[in-house]
Structures are given as structure tokens and as C-alpha cells.
Amino acid sequence: MKIRELVNAHIRDLAPYVPGKPVEELERELGIEDSIKLASNESPLGPSRRVIEAILAAAEDLNRYPDDSCFRLRAALAQQLGVSGESLCFAAGSDGIIELLTKCFLAPGDDAVFPWPSFAMYPIATAGAGARSVQVPLDKELRADVDATLAAVGPRTRLVFLANPNNPTGTSLGSAQFARLVKELPERVVLVADEAYVEFVRRSDFPDSIAALRERPTLVVLRTFSKADALAGLRVGYAVANPELVAYLDRARHPFIVSTLAQVAACAALADRAHLERIRKVTHAGLAQVEAGLTKLGLRFARSDANFICIEVGPGADALNQRLLKRGVITRPLGGFGLTTHLRVSVGTELENERFLETLARERAA
Predict the structure, then answer these.
(1) Strand duo 111-116 + 308-312: pairing
(2) Could you tell me the pTM of the whole model?
């Protein structure tokens, strides 16, 4: 008997998540040096000095299991957000919370609705629960279509995922559109507002999702320390939700899911908001730099509220991406999301952005 025949059907044909190519892998494959990675929406700056010091101080206690309750992190974050500690659930990245949500609320025969293209983990986690993904096309501006999303909700819909700002397009919904989802979705449907990039938002009418928790008991807000806090390598994500809902997520999670180093690093990051402001400032300056360069090249791009830009480069997007890789510039092709004419580029340092724009101009002309 083949192993394939033993595997659950909804896992057997599941396409795994494909991460951005690491610098080390590219340089090993092509025999090149001095590559830059602008593919995974990571911070252009590393973590703060406070974070490094906190990690070093905690390293001597790694023979002990982590604090399963995340007590210090929970207290610090609850104070900053103005919520109760019981409203918080922690996991190894916000995608860890996504898996908990599908584990708690989806079963075979159920539906999860979400705009598409969006975060690749939504269909993966949904399929992993044996449920069905209902993908709602973005509008012509590459934004979530609220009317179409509401219309896609049926009797078997249990979850609606909304990445806001959206990945991979960087677009976002304002407060009026978000309020429609909060008010018009049936209360039996859990609305998941995935705000991994909230710290980078530039629009003035971005929704206050934390305040909206008072209006809807089946709203879950997802956030992460991976992006604006520069802790992607430590994997700390969290949910803010009704305490009763959080209690069920906690039942479904694995013990000790957030490591000791991740917890102390996140606490230190919360205590150093000046470093987050530095990252935000560098990112916003980088967005302006790349947008100006793309405009000069005559390329269209989506207005971004994240730390990356979705660029329309034309039918040869995959081939262009390969040429960029050979020049040591790693971007993200979006053919797997259905955007076959687009690339996504993360904002880097000023020098990295300049190198990307120069390389893009040279390789487009090749």
C-alpha cells in the first residue's frame, strides 16, 4: 500500500506554503554574493537593542519550559491595547492563530470565505480542516469587495478572513467598509480581521478594530510582532477577541507554543516604541522612494498601506523575477495568487530600494 492512500484526502492534495527564497539559498544555487531579500515583507531594520539585551539575559534559563500563560507579555500588551488579559491569545505567529481558528470553527462541509488573492495560509488552513475555501475576487483596485464578500456568505459559512491591509496587494478597507462587515455579517460567522501590517497604514480612515470588538462578539483581531517590531525570526502573534472565544482558542492550542526568548523579546519590543517609530519612518520613506521610482519607470502599482508594493510589470513577470534573482535581488512573483503580471517587493533600506529600482529598470530593458 502506498503512503499516499493512508493520508486524509483533504491533506493529500494540499499545496504547501511557499516562503520567499532565503538569501543563503539563492547565493548557494547561483554562486553569487551580496544578495538582498525583498520578498517576505520583513523589517528593513533589525530588532532594538533592548530586545537583544533581553534575549541575552534570558538565554541562561532555556533549560526551563516557557511560561505557558505568557503572563508578562499578556499584562504589557493588555495595558497597551486597553483590553483585558483574558481577551488575548498567543501563538507562534499570527498564522498560528489562523490554524487555531480553523481548528475551532471549521469541520468538513463548512466554508471559509475570504477575498482573493490574499494571505496564502487562509486556503491552506481551511483545507487542513477539511473545509471549503470560498474565494471572492478583489475589485479592479485590488481591494476587498465588501458587497461580493457579504453575498458569498452561505448557510455553511463559519469564518470570514479579511487581511486588512491585504497581502499581497497592500490595499486596505476604510472604517465605513469595515463597519459594514461588522454589522451585516451574521453573528454566527466569525469575522477575522488580520492586521499584520497595521503599524504601516497611511490612510486616515483605517478602522479601529479593537473598538469594534465591543459591537461584535464574533470578531477576532489578529496582529503580530513579526513586521513592525522586527521579530519575524522569533514568531510571536496574537489574537484580541471576546474572552469566551479566546478560552476556546486556548483549549485548542499546543502548550508552551510561544518560546521564552520570543516572550521576553516581545515584552522588550513593547517597551521600546521609539524603535518601532524608526522602522515605520524608514518604511514610509522607502515606500515613497520606490513609488517615485516606479512612477518614473511608467509602472502601475497598488496604493499600499503595508510595508511592500504590488507592481504590475506585464506578462513576463516570472521571467523578470528570474532575471532579478540572477542579479541578487529577491522579490515575490504572484502567479500563484492569480496575479500573473505582478511582482511584490518589500520595502528595504534606502540602498536596497535603490538597487532594486536600478536592477528592475535594467532587466526590464533587457
Answers:
(1) unpaired
(2) 0.95
As beta bridge partners, residue 301 has 311
Neighbours of 115 (CB within 10 A): 29
Task: Evaluate the omega torsion of the peptide bond into residue 44 and state whether it is cis, within 30 degrees of 0.
Answer: no
* CB neighbour list of residue 186: distance below 8 Å, 6 or more residues apart: 153, 157
For the domain made up of 49-272, the CATH class stated in words is: alpha beta
Domain boundaries, the chain: 3-46+274-365, 49-272
* Chunked mean pLDDT (size 10), the chain, 366 residues: 81 79 85 92 96 96 96 98 98 97 97 98 96 97 98 98 98 98 98 98 97 98 98 97 98 95 98 97 98 98 97 96 96 95 98 98 89
CA 126-129-130 angle, 5° bins: 95
User: Which phi and psi angles does 337 have, rounded to 5°?
Assistant: -100, 0
Question: 3-46+274-365 falls under which CATH superfamily?
Answer: Aspartate Aminotransferase, domain 1 (3.90.1150.10)
